[in-house]
């Protein structure tokens, strides 16, 4: 069903609501002149929901067209994007998404796996920290935008710096630099190198090349933070690919083989509760911005994702409604999802249609049929 057809169907339902309730609460709620916000809002995963690899999924543009105003509420329905991806600045990524999707995506409605680290910047602003992942010095610039710092150096004998890497590298005295924390911002490109560096700074109390000590005896052990727990993610390759969760498993396996135990760490990213709490605050701020700062009631939030382990588990834990689409990691032919969603849909457009029709039925006090009538 096209966005235009959907809008016509929903407006017929809307007409029924007006006829039934006249100028009552439902009429005020759905009036295009009403200052009240629509009763729902959306949170979208990106890879496997809106895009796959470099390609935009056809249903994505139709879904966003509905949210941008082609709906019975006669206004924009608020939405944010929540991804376990990253590796570039939010501004740069939003510029690319705007071009791909054909709708403006603002940085205040976009959350990457490492965006939450902005809330921790004050804690590490004056101390050297190690940033892992990404290409060249891209993440160093992101960390600097967050008011974090990045230090990097060649400490792995099986890799020779390319000329491009030499141009972006910074020189400093490793023997006099103590790293207080290590952040895995994005998927590392060289797992062996990054496993070695992490093991070095953790076992040497933050100083690469220093004598090894038992980290448990340190008065200020190196903090280790992972931003994305996804073991798998969906790209344009036919099968799901290993993500940052795979790197974490590799590092912890190596560290345990060396020391006999895994190293304690902080985990952000979907499905952690911290990330969903952060996303909800971003969504409410977006709603306030769209309505000139007015205090508004919390809408019913619908998370639309393709990964039961991250999107659905996190949304269920946050008390959101969850919709699992079949355009990404989830493969229904392999069996029931590990976390049960509120609803399953073929794609993101069908998911948006279902959520709107559900809220329309709820507002009109009619039984919800699970489909558009």
Describe this structure in words.
The protein has 373 residues and is α/β, with parallel strands linked by helices. It has helices spanning 3-21, 25-30, 58-67, 90-101, 121-124, 138-145, 163-168, 191-203, 244-259, 273-290, 308-318, 348-363; strands at residues 40-44, 51-52, 55-56, 79-82, 110-111, 129-132, 181-184, 223-226, 232-233, 241-242, 266-267, 300-305, 321-325, 343-345. A 6-stranded parallel β-sheet has the order 5-4-1-12-13-14, sandwiched between helices. A 4-stranded parallel β-sheet has the order 6-7-8-11, covered by helices on one side. Helix 1 runs parallel beside helix 3 (58-67), helix 1 runs parallel beside helix 12 and helix 8 crosses helix 9 (244-259). The protein is elongated and about 70 Å long. It starts with a helix and ends in a 10-residue tail after the last helix.
Question: DSSP strand (E) fraction?
Answer: 5-15%
DSSP helical segment count: 12
Mean pLDDT: 81
Radius of gyration: 23 Å
- Record the strand order, biggest sheet: 5-4-1-12-13-14
| General shape | elongated
Describe the biggest sheet?
6 strands, parallel
Tell me the helix content. Answer: 25-40%
Order of helices and strands: HHEEEHEHEHEHHEHEEEHEHEHEEH
Query: What is the count of β-strands?
Result: 14
Class by SSE composition: alpha/beta
N-to-C span: 13 Å
Low-confidence stretches: 1-35, 150-159, 368-373
């Amino acid at each position: 069903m096209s966005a235009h057809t959907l809008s016509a169907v929903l407006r017929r339902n809307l007409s029924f609501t007006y006829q039934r309730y006249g100028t009552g609460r439902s009429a005020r709620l759905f009036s295009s002149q009403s200052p009240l916000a629509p009763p729902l809002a959306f949170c979208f995963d990106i890879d496997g929901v809106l895009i796959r690899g470099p390609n935009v999924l056809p249903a994505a543009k139709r879904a966003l067209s509905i949210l941008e105003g082609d709906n019975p509420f006669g206004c924009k329905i608020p939405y944010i994007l929540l991804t376990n991806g990253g590796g570039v600045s939010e501004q740069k990524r939003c510029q690319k998404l705007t071009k791909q999707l054909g709708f403006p995506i603002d940085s205040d409605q976009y959350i990457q796996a490492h965006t939450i680290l902005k809330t921790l910047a004050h804690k590490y602003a004056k101390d050297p920290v190690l940033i892992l992942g990404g290409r060249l010095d891209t993440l160093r610039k992101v960390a600097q935008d967050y008011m974090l710092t990045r230090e990097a150096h060649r400490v792995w004998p099986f890799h020779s710096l390319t000329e491009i890497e030499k141009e972006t590298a910074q020189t400093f005295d490793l023997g006099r630099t103590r790293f207080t924390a290590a952040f895995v911002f994005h998927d590392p490109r060289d797992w062996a190198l990054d496993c070695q560096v992490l093991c070095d700074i953790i076992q040497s109390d933050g100083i690469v090349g220093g004598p090894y000590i038992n980290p448990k005896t340190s008065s200020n052990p190196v903090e280790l933070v992972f931003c994305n727990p996804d073991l798998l993610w969906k790209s344009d390759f036919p099968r799901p690919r290993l993500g940052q969760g795979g790197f974490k498993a590799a590092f912890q396996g190596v560290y345990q083989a060396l020391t006999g135990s895994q190293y304690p760490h902080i985990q952000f990213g979907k499905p952690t509760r911290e990330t969903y709490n952060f996303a909800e605050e971003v969504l409410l701020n977006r709603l306030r911005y769209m309505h000139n700062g007015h205090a508004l009631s919390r809408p019913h939030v619908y998370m639309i994702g393709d990964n039961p382990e991250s999107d659905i588990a996190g949304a269920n834990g946050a008390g959101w409604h969850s919709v699992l689409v079949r355009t990404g990691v989830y493969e229904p032919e392999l069996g029931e999802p590990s976390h049960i969603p509120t609803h399953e849909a073929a794609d993101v457009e069908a998911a948006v249609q279902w959520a709107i029709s559900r809220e329309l039925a709820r507002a009109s006090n009619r039984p919800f049929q699970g489909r558009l009538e």
